Amino acid sequence: MIGVLAASPWTVWGIVAAATAGVIVRPFAWPEFVWAVAGAALLVALRLLPAADALDGVRKGTDVYLFLIGMMLLAELAREEGLFDWLAARAARLANGSSARLFTLVFAVGTVVTAFLSNDATAVVLTPAVAAAAKAADAKQPLPYLFVCAFIANAASFVLPISNPANLVIYGTHMPPLLQWLPRYALPSLLAILATYAALRWSMRADLREPIGAEIEVPTLSRGGMLAAAGIVGTAFVLLGSSALGLQLGLPTVLAGLATAILVLAPGATRPGTILKNISWGVLPLVAGLFVLVEALQKTGVTDRLSALLHGLVQHSATQAAWVAGAALGFGCNLVNNLPAGLVAGRVVESADVPEHVRAAVLIGVDLGPNLSVTGSLATILWLTALRREGHRVSAWSFLKLGVVVMPPALALAIAGAFAFG
Question: Is residue 347 part of a domain?
Fold first, then answer.
């Protein structure tokens, strides 16, 4: 068979690295998905990856595509019906002129949204609301509040199994029941969240001394806005129920989004075309391209080599293996994005048959490590997309300068906390 096995793996690795670099740097300001899709297409065109295997890789992302479509639909409905403006005004009024209080409110809400709706939902749903809140409060520096959305989306993403789709990838068909998950990840999650809050608050201390507006007019929430809010809350319950039953989350999420859309759009005040036009559809080919790149990597034997390496580390010292694997993934996923890193890591830990605290360290590295750079997670890429729609720009360098302060201590504390259970 003509395929990856017949070619030098270095060629495949080079194309994957170049495609990933394109996603990170965005040359010519082209969208991220262009580079991921181009890399995948080049692998097939050069016959380094059979087309059938590439299609198989695309199909493996079906649950993720459905999940993202549902979340983006809910976010666009909420935006169009004024829910974000209403929430923003309420938050700004509660802050009562204190920028530090508004920062803490945004952080708390982001924690809840991430835990019960996923980190991608925080990036897609919460970011526009926070941008509106900063504007309503007449904040001179809106970025501290917007940065919260990115960092808490990753820091709180292992509170529950549904908090990050990567969790499902790491555990696969062996997802622990909720009553086992909670004690295992409660302390690591708490440590990661508190460390992230402290580091962000300290880093932003100068901006958070600036006063913000206290007299905020709260607009009336329309019927459509109420239905959109109910749809988001209902989706959280649907995801919790699906997780408890061991079901994949994509289909329930997209069905919840469609049901909400039918209820909101039924009166005819808002046209479906308006909602569909404003959804960031480029995220879907981006994810598909990443799945194909991972498929090519696996064909080169990367998974087998990493499994053997991890198994050897576990045989020597399971504690050392946990620290090495967690730290390596924590930093490494910023080079390749945590979605492909999680896909590879999930298969590696399954093959290596590692103890639970090692698997927990791997999951923490995949979930929390992306707080180092803008390319670390899909949630952060979605956050950047949401920022651009709101007229804000964050450079890779400015995020990295903040990430270097925020991520390492949170990662170390969370991995240490993983040893407290079992």
Answer: yes
